[in-house]
Design goal:
Shape: globular
Structural class: alpha+beta
CATH topology of the largest domain: Diaminopimelate Epimerase, Chain A, domain 1
Distance between the termini: 17 Å
Number of domains: 2
Strand order of the largest sheet: 1-2-3-4-6-7-8-17
Mean pLDDT: 97
Helix content: 10-25%
CATH superfamily of the largest domain: Diaminopimelate Epimerase, Chain A, domain 1
CATH class of the largest domain: Alpha Beta
Low-confidence stretches: none
Radius of gyration: 18 Å
């Protein structure tokens, strides 16, 4: 039987964060088996590792209903798992999106903090028609958007539209058309929708619907956090170097904290967080 480790990422409390499965040895599993295990686990993603040396791993990520090229929170959880078994240090994860470095160090509380360095990020415009279609399935009026943070689609391993709410109340009121949003996202190649509200210059509250993975919403989304960091830099909405704090999962009762470091000279974005084992 395949051993699946269960960890909550971007938290030091197993009642918070985003649960992730981690399979340390997936060398004998095929794609159908990995998808079946991810569906049985039921978390938004499970990471499947195949070792290639002491600190290099091939990794695939599966949601309950589909494979995704990259997953941030399962990567953060994987880093903590590896550090607990091999000690802190640097690991290389070869994902379908590209190579991701993972640095893990001890925290002041005695646990571990993982920091992933994203693949090369990117950003594109989003058409007015796609914005209207998104707002329609989100059931958000256009007047509830923040004009200071214009809609875009950003990438740091997978693609995420970034849609900014004008108020915290708008962000909290999320009751979208699951099937309609899933259909739109599949047609456009989007993985989650990064919904954000900016509380202050470097403090954001975010939510990420994830219907393409068979999940209503992610409590923490590291890949989208990296994409947001690149979006803010490219639109000159922050002055690098900058450290951002993202609060996610509060509206789900699973609070998560993501730290995003954005540099001027280094295009890749760094996303950090703790992770803790979920008791059986």
């Amino acid at each position: 039987m395949t051993e699946v480790l269960r960890y909550a990422a971007f938290t030091d409390d197993p009642r918070g964060g985003n649960p992730a499965g981690v399979v340390l040895d997936a060398s004998l599993l095929d794609e159908a088996q990995m998808l079946a295990i991810a569906a049985e686990v039921g978390y938004s993603e499970t990471a499947f590792l195949v070792a290639d040396g002491a600190a290099t791993f091939d990794v695939r990520y599966f949601a309950p209903s589909a494979e995704v090229a990259f997953c941030g929170h399962a990567t953060i959880a994987t880093g903590v798992v590896l550090a607990q078994r091999h000690g802190p240090g640097r690991f290389l994860l070869r994902t379908k999106a590209g190579s991701v470095h993972l640095d893990v160090e001890r925290s002041s509380s005695g646990g571990f903090v993982s920091t992933l360095t994203s693949v090369e990020p990117a950003i594109t415009e989003i058409s007015d028609d796609d914005v209207r279609a998104l707002l329609d399935v989100l059931r958000w009026p256009a007047t509830d958007l923040d004009p200071a943070l214009p809609p875009r689609v950003a990438y740091a391993g997978v693609w995420h539209p970034i849609i900014a709410a004008a108020t915290r109340e708008r962000l909290a009121d999320l009751n979208y058309d699951f099937d309609g949003l899933r259909e739109l996202m599949l047609a456009r190649g989007w993985t989650t929708i990064q919904l954000v509200w900016r509380e202050s210059q470097h403090l954001f509250h975010v939510r990420d619907p994830f219907p393409v993975g068979g999940v209503v919403e992610d409590p923490a989304t590291g890949a989208a956090a990296a994409a947001l960091g690149h979006y803010l830099r490219e639109l000159r909405l922050i002055e690098p170097p900058a450290r951002l704090t993202l609060h996610q999962g509060d509206d789900l009762g699973r609070p998560s904290v993501l730290t995003v470091d954005v540099e001027a000279a280094e295009p890749r974005i760094r996303v950090s967080g703790a992770a803790v084992e979920i008791p059986a």
